[in-house]
Structure formats: C-alpha cells, structure tokens
Amino acid sequence: MTERQGCDENDAGNYTCHRTTEKIVVDGRLSEACWQRAPKSPRFVDMVTGVPGFLDTRMAALWDDENLYVGFWIEEPNVQARFSERDSPVYFENDVEVFIAGGDCYYEFEINARGTVYEVFYIWQDAYKRGGFSGKPEFDLLKRRVDVLGGFQDALRYKKHPRGRRWAFMDWDFPGLKTAVRIDGTLNDPATIDHGWTVELAFPWSGMQTLAEGRPLPPRNGDVWRMDFSRFEALQYNGRLTDPSVGWSFNRHGVYDSHIPECFTRVDFSTDAV
C-alpha cells in the first residue's frame, strides 16, 4: 500500500469549545455577545505547508444542551458563489467546511456564500459490518446513493490512507441542521470590493448519535472530539482557474487532503461559560 504523507500528532491543532447559556439565533450575523467572547481560532493556514493564508479565515465554536455551534469569519474581496442546489459540488468554488470524526466514521459539511449546503457521511469499509452500520436503513448500500472514497483516482491525487476505502453516503442529511450566511458586500459582482462573509451553524447533538459511537451527548467537561475546519478558494487569473483550489485549514495537514481524521483539530469541550 502506498505510504501516506500527512500530519502527525504534533501538527493537529487544539481548540477549547466553551458552553454558552445565551440563546443563539442562527442568522449568519454572529452578533450575540457569546460570539464576541468566544475564542477565535488562529488565522487559517495553508493545508500543506502551514503558512498563514493570504486571506483571513477564522472560526469559533460554542455548545449548549441542544447544539454544537460553529461560526466562520471569512475575508473575501470578491464574494462569489454560483451553485444554488443542495448537495451541489460547492468545493469547486469558494466554501468553508466542517468535518466531525467518529472512530469508524466521519461527517463532511460544506457551504458557499449563497448558503448552498453539501453533506456526506463516510464509513470506513473495514468497520461497515463490525461497527453495526450495515443494519441501519440510512446506510443501506443497495437503497442509498453511495460512492467510494479512497479508490485509484483518489490515491493518485491525495495519497492513499492506510485504513483503505470509505463508503460515502451522498444523500445523508444531518438531522435538524441549521445554517445561515451573511455577506458583507455584493455577491457575484467583481466590480465592487467586498469585505467578506460570515457563516453560522447549529449541529444538534440529537443528530450525532452515530458519530458519537457511545460517547456522551452533549459531551462532558474535558471530552475531546476531532473536527476539521477549512476553507477552499477557487482563484481565477488570466482567464484560468486554479486546479486544485487553494486550501486553508485550522492546522497543517501536510498533504492536500481534508479526509484524514488524524489531522483534525482536537476540540476540547469545557463546561466553563464562555
């Protein structure tokens, strides 16, 4: 099997997610006082090299008994977003992403500046039966829309993960998910200079039963989950589109690949109020 290049444990970042008692309205504004007090991440860095991105991107997270909340602040002088249909490939344009890892599975969320959402739920093939996924209707390989991640083409572009292939459930939707985007500028108008856009998300704990794999929900004080926070920027110059897009993330991955749970940021849950 091809040796995978990537991060080690020293590369993975750390973020403390505090509890909030303030009601959060998911409207994309990130205007509640708790968001002003929540610790923001460092500036996102180049996914491969770890060099700070040339456009500022930061995130913050909070939690209460019902939800995990994630906010993004995205500097963008030319806010662009074309895809409008749910589960369109927004990763081909400008987006921000959240990955949430379980032990034998993980969840991918993406959103663009129009608020178009793309979601996939991944299960490592070596755990599909052993982990009890095969008995759940939402993961029926014959009845659901399923792809494979980690095949030959993926190996050529991203290197092969030692654990092998993953089933990708393309029609899985996070139960109760709430999303909102606010643009500070004018969408799809290169004649104007924009400030950027913000994203506000609420992931209900009730929808994380499969990802938790027995862990308490909501998490207890000191519990650590692995999550990835990233941004992809499709740049155009001289009539050409960069391929692949620029990738920035909370911490360095060492390889152009978001699908490495070992590289995900350690999110430490604290019951201390923000």
Give a quick summary of the entry.
The protein has 274 residues and is mainly beta.
List the topology elements.
Elements: E1 14-19, H1 33-37, E2 45-46, E3 57-63, E4 67-75, E5 95-101, E6 105-111, E7 117-124, E8 146-149, H2 152-158, E9 166-169, E10 178-184, E11 196-204, H3 209-212, E12 224-233, E13 236-237, E14 240-241, E15 246-249, E16 265-273
Parallel strand pairs: 1-3, 1-16
Antiparallel strand pairs: 2-15, 3-4, 4-11, 5-6, 5-12, 6-7, 7-9, 8-9, 10-11, 12-15, 12-16, 13-14
The H/E string reads EHEEEEEEEHEEEHEEEEE
Percentage of residues in DSSP E strands: 35-45%
Stated plainly, the CATH topology is called Immunoglobulin-like
Helical run tally: 3
Number of domains: 1
Helix content: under 10%
> Taking Cα atoms only, what radius of gyration do you get, to the nearest Å?
18 Å
Mean pLDDT, all residues: 93
User: Main β-sheet, in a few words?
Assistant: 14 strands, mixed
CATH first level = Mainly Beta
Class by helix and strand content?
mainly beta
What is the global morphology?
globular
CATH architecture: Sandwich
